[in-house]
Structures are given as C-alpha cells and as structure tokens.
Amino acid sequence: MGVSGNVDGEYTLDEDDFNKYWAYNDNEPIQTGVEGWMKVMLTSSEQISREANRRQWLGYFRILAPETVEMYNASASPISLANWRVICNTGSLATQIGKIRSTAYYDRTLRQRIIDDNPVVQPQGHFYLVNDTDLFDSWYGNQDNQWGSAANEEIPVFQMDEQNWGVSYKIKKVKSVYAVGELITVDERDLDQDTFRGETIKFIDKEDEDNPNSWNNIFAPVLFFDYFGREIQNLAPNELALDMIGTDADFREQVGKSIMVLGLLHGGGIVSLTLKNEYDQVCARTVDYGQVDLEEFNVSTEKIDPTKTTWVKRTTPSIGGTETEALNSAMQSHLNDKFFIKNGPFCSIGEGRNVSTGNDFERLGGSGDLSKGANALSALSKYMCASHIRLESCLGDVTRVGWKEAYDEVAKSSLRSIIAKNGKWELNKWAGHTIRFLTGKLRGEKYPIIDNSKNTISLVREDSKFIPRSAPERKALKPKKGDKFSIGPGFKTPLCYTRKTGESAVWTWRNAIPYSGTYNFYVYGLNDAIDTTEFLEENNNASIDVELWNYKNNIYDMIKKRGKYGKQDSFNAGKIKPDNISPDGSVRMRLTAHNVTEKNVEDKSGRAIEGGGGIQTGIAWFNYALVTPVPVLGRVNINTAPARLLSSLPGISEKLAQNIYNGVASSNKKNLKPYQHLGDLFKVRGMTPDVFERCVNILTIGSSVFTVEVEAQILKKASDKQTSDSNEIVSSRKKRFTIELDERTDGFFNITERERYPVR
Description:
Blueprint: E1 68-72, E2 79-80, E3 85-89, E4 94-99, E5 103-107, E6 112-116, E7 120-121, E8 126-130, H1 133-140, E9 157-159, E10 166-177, E11 181-186, E12 200-204, E13 219-223, E14 239-242, H2 248-252, E15 258-262, E16 272-276, E17 282-286, E18 300-303, E19 311-314, H3 323-326, H4 329-332, H5 370-383, E20 389-392, E21 398-401, E22 404-405, E23 407-413, E24 417-420, E25 434-437, E26 446-448, E27 451-452, E28 456-458, E29 484-488, E30 496-498, E31 504-509, E32 519-524, E33 530-532, E34 537-539, E35 543-550, E36 555-563, E37 570-576, E38 587-594, E39 598-599, E40 616-617, E41 620-622, E42 624-628, E43 636-637, H6 643-646, H7 654-662, H8 689-695, E44 699-700, E45 705-716, E46 728-743, E47 749-756
C-alpha cells in the first residue's frame, strides 16, 4: 500500500503478512489543519487487479495522540533509572513495556542535546514515559523530531516499546452474534461495560507468530454500535464486541490466547503499572489512575499530591519540557513541602514526624495540625525506640574469612572503563549492576556497568559515541589511582557475596557491643529475586543460615536456618544472647548460603514465572548486621541535667533549656517533672517536632550508668585547738569508676563496674 502521502510515492510492503498494519507518512507526526481536519492520501497496491479479482481491504484508521506517564522523584536523592523496567500487569497477564536505557534531553551544563545511558531524575524532578518520542516532541517540543535539541526540552523522555504499549488479557471464551460481530470474554475481574469503549485491540499469538496465517498482530476496533447503527447493549462483564474478522472456526481457535488493548485505557483504574529497578525490586506501582471520558481530548489526570491517591482531571495538562511546565497546579503551591522517603532503618524516633498522614501534603509533625502530630509522636515515644548497633561486612574493625567482597580500588582508568587492582571476576557477571565510588573526587557518584572482564569494568557500549556520566552529578569518569569503589546495588557501604551453594564465611567484630544482653539480630543484604505481580509474590532469593559463636560453650549457635531477604533487603535472624558476646564486646557470625542458582535471568518479559524457581540471580549477599535495641552510652538525663548542659544540645535554646530543667508546661506551670518518658518533652513550653527530632536521640529519662569518684585523704592534726579544715594533708588518692545499676524485683540494685580510671 502507498502510505507515503505523496503522489507516486513509495509503497510500504508487508510481504510476509506479519505486521498487518501500515504506518502513514513514514510514521512521522502530521499537523492538523483548520478546525482539526487532516488530509490523508492512500494508494492501492500495484498488484490489485479487477480482472484477476485481486482486492485490497482497508479496515480502519487509527490516529494516535501522545500518551504520557509522568514520573516524579519525591525523595531527597537523585535516582538513576538505568536498566529499570516498566511492567503492565492486569493480574492474568504481565507485559514488559519498556526497559529504560538511553534517553535524550537537553543538558543545561553542556548546552547541547545528549543521549544518556545513565538517566537520572533529580530530587523534585520529572521523567516521562511516552508512546512515541517524535509525537511527544511535536506536541510539547520544537517539532523537529529531535527531543532535547532545544533548551526547553530538558526533561528526559523514554519511549516505550510501541508493540507492547498496552494492557493484555487472556481470552476466556468467544462467540459470534448476528448483526453485532465477534464477542470476546477476557479472563479478568469484573470490568465495567464501558471499559473497552472506543479502544483498539490486537491479537497476540506468540507461539504461532511465524505463521503468516495466524491472528498474531491482527488489529480491530472495539464496537459499541451494531451493523444497524444501534448501540450494543447487555454485554456480559468482561465482554467486548469486535467487527467480524475471520471465519468462526479461526475465531474459536483464539481461546486461551491473548489480546492487547493498545495504550492505557481511558477509563483508568484497572491496571497495575509497576516500575522495577535492575534487581526486579518494585520501586513504584500505580494500581489505579484517573479516568477521562471517551470524547475528551488533550485532557490529563494528575495526582494532587504525588505520594497519595487523589486524582483530578485537568483540561490544561501540566506537561512540558521544563520542570516549571511539568509541575501541576497543586505542586506549584507546595514547593516548600518536602517528602520523606525512608530507605533503611530509622535512626531516631523523632524521624516519625516525617511520616505521611492520609491527607494531601500532610506529615505527622511537619504540616497540618501540629498539635495532633506532637500528640502522636509523644504516644509513639512511650513504646518505640531506634537505638541500634550496625556491624559492617567490609568496613571498620572487622575480619572476614570466606566469601568475596564487592569492593576494590582503581589501578588504571580511561573515560570509558576501569581496571581494578584485585579483580578476578567472572566474565560479564557484573553487567547491569552499579559501580559506586567511596573515596576521591568521585565519592558518592554511580555508573551503570555494561560488562566486565577478569579485571576490567566497562561503563559504555562499544558502539556508543558518548562519554558515560555519573549519577547524581553527571561527572565524567576521571578517578585517581587508589580510589575505592563498590560493585553491586550502589549502596553507601560495600557488600560481601558468594556465587557458590554451601559456601560459608565468618565475620568477627571487635569491641562491638558494650553491654552484654539479649537483643534482636537482623541481617541486611540485597533482595534481587522476588517475583512480583499484582496477585503473586514468590521469593526466589538464595537462603542463608545464620550462626553466632557461643563464647561460653565454644560452639556456634544456629539462630536462623534458611533465612531469605524480603522487600526491605533484610530478615530477622533471631536473638543474640549474652553468651554470644565476649567479655570485650566482640561478636562472631557465620553465614552459609544455600540455593545459589542462576536461572531465568534472561527472561525480561515481565511475566511471573510460576514454578521452576522463577528468576534466580546466582548470588547471595551480605551488607551488614543490626543489633537492636541496645543501651547507648552518653545520653543526657532530662530529669537531672542542668539547663546549661541542655542548652548545648542541638536545637535547644537557652529559654527552652530552662523550661525543660524546670518542667514548665505549655500552661506555664512547673508540674512536668519527673518526666516519665521522652514524649513528655512535647508538653514543655516551646518544644516543637523539629527540635524533638534533632535532640531526642541523645536524651534519656533515667540513668542506669553513673560515674562515681572516691577521694581518700590521710590528715595530720597540728594541735587540739585547730579545726579539721586546717589539718595537713599527708597523702591523697582518687579513684573514678563507671558503674551500672540493675534494679531487682525486691527493690534493691545490682551494681556492676563497667570502667575503672587510673589512680591520681
């Protein structure tokens, strides 16, 4: 068919009858004329002949406008999207509709258009997923089909797989109805009758896609009027009507196969759009989205607060190439509101003030009714704490025997690759991972790894003309010899790993836990193999045995068998007990990895692999262990501390220090002492959630540890008439002790000496 739009133009062939569609004007966008009219000229095939009875049928036209999914980084850290995948899931089917790699945009620093292999979304920044980049440029750019060629095209744009940009369903049953057409029932939860109204579907038959007679890639509009122009009524749930396509026999053969509704449904609300990082961890998921009417054109649905679920309809979409254009109207009036994204353990109970409430742009202690937030934090402080000790896998006073560390240093480098000092890696096993610099001028910068040899890491494809740039600061690769770096997920601290089933490793931390006791013991690593869809979750991570050395019995105590990392990259291994802590506070741990298998890693379809173990990466990881809750030395007792000491603490003014010392309530009465728990500080006149967060981690309401100073003197009495004050000191000795009191059930205390200082 001639679809160039020109007289005597070139013909576009579908010789093997596989595509079953033609892209008009070489797929370049067309500008409408006055009142929205569009001129289209088609030329029938030269093979058409009345004498030979060769005909050509034209089914319908499908006219596309831009479909855009806007992503917003609500965190305080830049996020690299390299190798992240977008999965569209309806429950019965999951389809990968894009793996984010190269993106184009205008770089204001370089003042030019760049193709970026490490796309980064800055804090409070945007990123667009679109169905067609050229079409997006025609609507929101300078219409040169080169997004990023102008200064107002600075937001990265990634084009989804056009052939898979849609929502897929399994065909449950079919039937033909006179004057209506073909009726298809999809295998899905109850859908509204108007769900598919005005949509276009295509048939998917991957098993028979090489057969030109298969229905794979056959397109059809969803009907809502029958052959007589009457509106189709009384469709069953999950049922849609199509025009007659083939024979009834061919139609019945489609049961069990699939259809895809092209694009996102205008009715919204029925699709799970999931964003997964390079380790298949779910980083964002939209299980519903706003609804527009079928006849509404150039209308968007937007969240008022990007972290909530309230959708509103906008007739003037806030979509564009600059951050100002991309901000919706609600966000423009809340530019000073910060979102709190926590990725790791809480370091202070005061951080609870940043937890979001159910209302838009409201946090527990940072917006809205502050008195409610203060009351909530006060209540939480009675029952919660955040004190812990972190035991690193590679850094600090630790020794290790077994496993390997994903940690090395630069021996030599170029703008495209790094040669490591130690290396000895398996070929191409670090492809898709991240290198993060821990020292030097590139400290904190991350680059996605393309491939590796025994000692070399490549950060750019061989055919690429561009220099790799880091996240978040977009720096070129210029490390110095000796700069340290980690490999893997790009955490701030390096990990240890093994690729062998049954391999054990032992870590020993010296002087790690100051007080012997029974505490919770958590193991942190990397969850890289949880297979997740909307209705299915299968944990395929390697399993790990956790053992702690018993210093009393000189054996290992098994505290966790076959633990697996969950979505928080951790698992609770059990309890560490006094016998697992040496007299000097040392701890020894042994990890043994099981089921370390590499399987299905090349499957990037987005589907859940049921049975057979799903995707398994062939790596077991360890990042650090967490011991909690533990006593913390050096905290200030708010019941006994003088105002001068309190005023030296973060955020506490002299006036507030006096109020804490005197127990002054908001009513100005001195009736708060003794404080029963840290939450009582919110009753102090002048205390705010901000000050509470800054200082609460170094405060306590009671002291169990005390410093005792004893001085003994030998006196020489000069005469009977002289007072004791005038006696001569013959000799003097002082001793200082740190002791801990442990109250017994009978009301008395056990006294334990913790430290002894030299005699003076």
